[in-house]
# Entry
Amino acid sequence: MKRKLLTAAEIVIFTAAITGMIAFGGQPGGEDDPIVSKSYVDSKFEQLKGNSASQTEISDEEKNDIIQKVLMQIGEGGEKYVPVFVKKGEVLYGAEGSEIILRSGVAYAKIEGGDGIVNATEGTELPDTYPIRKNNLHIVPRDDGRGMRVTEDAWFIVKGGYRIE
# Structure
């Protein structure tokens, strides 16, 4: 008998707790409810659109600078190898993590600071003015002016960001 009363009391307390949570828990889709409704997400998008419209316009020159920075980071190929032609006298600069393979022509390492370019095929580091070997995988470790100076028209395949100057 005592056990039945204890079980009945537990059921009443449990039911009251659940009812209280439902009654005072907030509206579904509201800010207090962790479930997000479509209308809530739409309202947040509208707020973002309103904020971006109030920002000042940027000039065409600033837009071009931003585009150039993005292209430097992703290159034209991004995550795939792309063929790149570089004329004699130009320098192919790689972005951080770029992979470069010389296919034809003649090029030398161009380093404007500390360490060199990694020759992953041979497991070596190339210092400034060191000849680039054809069909070897070269990795540019940092975006700090490392590249390959071309002394005879050259074709490269490049994965990642780059620029030619």
